[in-house]
Structure formats: structure tokens, C-alpha cells
Sequence to fold (510 residues):
Amino acid sequence: MMNKQAEGDQAAVHAHGLTVRRGTGRTPRTVIADIAFDVPRGRITGLLGPSGCGKSTLLRAIVATQAHVTGTLDVLGRPAGHPDLRSRIGYVTQAPSVYDDLTVRQNLDYFAAILDPGRAAAARRADAVHRAITDVDLTTRADALAGNLSGGQRSRVSLAVALLGTPELLVLDEPTVGLDPVLRRDLWNLFHDIAATRGATILVSSHVMDEAERCHDLLLMREGRILAQDTPDALRTRTHSATVEEAFLRLVDEANALLAQEQPR
Amino acid sequence: MNAARTAATAARVLRQLRHDPRSIALMILVPVLMLTLLRFVFDGSPRTFDSIGASLLGIFPLITMFLVTSIATLRERTSGTLERLLAMPLGKGDLIAGYALAFGAVAVVQSLLATGLALWALGLDVVGSPWLLLLVALLDALLGTALGLFVSAFAASEFQAVQFMPAVIFPQLLLCGLFAARSTMHPVLEGISDALPMSYAVDGMTQVLTHTDMTADFVRDVVIVAACAVLVLALGAATLRRRTP
Fold:
């Protein structure tokens, strides 16, 4: 009982002194520099920041497909990269990673067989595949080749794959980029639905600031550092801003001013 | 390693191939057509056709599987599906064995057709058992798969991947004894050819061509080709990194 309680209180992702260097040469670039943050369980946390600020690298570190990660990074109570975590995390890369020469259903069948292998699990897999296709609203295109789908449809196939194993943590790298407004709204409704009904934690990155209003919590990131971690409301109130975008810009200005003070020319 | 995941991977690779009938046709038909062509090129000297034809029965599966595997795994790397798979509970061994199984199955069909046609329609004279020819062809296919998998790690694009074909396969082709007996080459080249796996693949075919029984040389050839395939597969597995640098 105590253990369960303790695990429930723990953040889904806990980072402390997290640094990531990239590149194989003699002088690797520091992409993420000594950051600390927590992603609360059962909520939607938005990771926002301009392109190239290290969002994707951070997400890769969390799903353990990133090398040269130092510092503390715990995911669902285990150190990132623990083999047990592989079936508990759903990860959607920025570019849709599905097989273009397979149909939607064949793609999902294959990934389902990797997550839940064996003949005994066939019925359970069929259910999971059916539900994932329904979740992303692709039932009418289930037997179309992924390569023949539109960009938005392909990224939904990619998302459906991540939904397969009913993951406790969903890590989504810019899932709504390039989608039309209706589809974006539908996807956000789906994210909220997943968080509310399945109790899953969702960490979603975006460089579009207006998506911030749809998240429960925000991590604002810039140049490999966390600028702020708060709810959208608190962030706006604290910076006396009308929108999260304005708040972000204000925080950037503050950080720059602070930097200028510390290092006078 | 997990048998169900390996089987699922092999089934998936074959399913991908099924959506690409033109590739299947090319893989199956090109060796058959080339052997037919060769038969009539050496219309006046059937002995030459026997020796070159038998060697080619081993070389075709190697080249085809090399090309197919290097492109297929490169696509897996560049499309992000490899990253996704390795973030899932899939062992590298499962993935590689899945590929080897799927392309091995294609190689069986290809070799059955090519060997059958060569022996019964084109009059290729083989003293030994056709099953041994098939065994060597299959091992060659496995070696091709292994080399393709390994090489795909060093190719950044499909354009580069196809360039590896002449770079990796042609030197072996020139030195394997197909054009000139290895013992008549410059001693340095003979030494190099001793170190290249295709030399043993072709030698194995020649053994079947000229001997009724399994000779000690044949067994050595088969073991060397198989060992090379396994070694290169292991090297290929090492190039499948779970983490991006």
C-alpha cells in the first residue's frame, strides 16, 4: 500500500541536473544544459519553445533513444532506458514513423505483435488495433497504404501506433504540426480524453504557442534551458500577460536582461 | 530473442514486399533470364556454361539479397521506424533474424527456380546433388543479407547504398575465381581472395559441379560461408543503435 501511494505521488518524469551533449566529434555540442523539471502524472504537459531549442532531444532522452545523457532522469519511477519502460511508454516522433508500403491496419498489426507477442494474445491485439484506429478516426482508411495517405493522416497512423499498448506515458513530438484546425482540435480532444479516462500522462511538444492554452501544465524551453514550469494561468498572471506567447517573450527578455547584468561588457 | 516477435517481423517484411510486385518479379526473374542468356552466350562451349553457370547460381542470391537488404534496412533507419522499434520491447536479434528469415524465404524461391531451370531446361551438367547447390545458394543469400545489413549503417541515403554494391561485391566477383582460376592470380591477389567469403561460395559450387559426394573441401567452404554470414550479421546487429548520438 505504502509503495503504491509513493509511486502515485511520484512525478511521471523527474529530471535533475540533466545535461545532453550531441555529436560524435571531439567537441560535442551541449544541447541541454543542467535542467531540472517534473512532469506530473495523469496530466497533459506541454513542452514549448522555438524550433531548435532542444525539445526533441529532451523527448528522446526521456524515451531513451538519445545518447550522452547525464544527470538524473527518472521515468515512471525508473531510470530512463530501463527495459521495463519500453512497453509502458508510447512515443511519436516528429516525422511519422510508419511503413509506407503497408496498410494502416498492417502497420498496427505489426507493432501490436511486437508489444504483445504470441498467438495467445491475438484477440487482445485485434481489439487494441481496432481501438487505436477508431481513436485516431481512420476507420474508413484502415486498408489504405500508409504511403497513399495525406500528411495529416500519416501522422495519425503514427499516433495510433503509440496508443497501442495503452501506455502510461505518451511522449508526442509536435503531433499537430501541419494539421488543419479541425483535426488539431480533434486530436487535442483525444489527448484530453486519454488523460482523463485512462489516467495516462501526456508530454507533448510544440513550437506553436497557442497550443499552450490546451495543456494543464507547461514547460517553457529556450536554448537548452527551462525558462519556466507552471500552469498556463499562473504563468500569465505572474508575467502580467494576456497570452502564453506574451508570457514566453517576457520571460525571454527577463532572462536576457539578467544575463546582461551578470556579464557586463 | 523472442520467436513470436521474430516471426512477426519476418511476416511484416514479406507483407511489405507483397505490396511491391515489381520487386518480387525482378528478384525472381532476373537470375532466370541471366542464366538463359548465359546459356546461349556459351552456345558453342557447354563446359564453360557448366562452370560459370554453377558459380552464378551462388552469386545471384548474394547480390540480390545484398541490394534488397541494404535498401530495406536503410529505409528502416531513415523512416524512423527503427528508432520506434528499438524504443519498443524488440530485441536487435529479433529484427535481424526477422529480416534474414524473410529474405531467406525469397532466396529459397529464387534459387529453386534458377537451379531448376539451369539443371533441367538449360542442360547444366552437375555431378553432385542439386540439393547441395541449393544449400550453398541459400547460405550465399544469408551472406548477402548480412553484408547488406552491415553496409546500410554506413550509407546516409539510398543513393550511397547502391554505390556500396560495386564497392563491396565487385572486388569479390573479380577475385572469386569466376574469371580466372584463383591459383593463376598474382600471389597477393590470391592471398586476398583467400580472405573473401565469395571465393568459398564459388568454390563450394564448383565442388558440387565436379564431385558426386560431399568433399572435405565442400564442407570447409560451406562452414566458412556460414561463419562469415553469422559474423557479419553480428557486426550488423552492433550497428543498430538504440540511441541517436
Q: What stands out?
A: Chain B has one domain: 3-239.
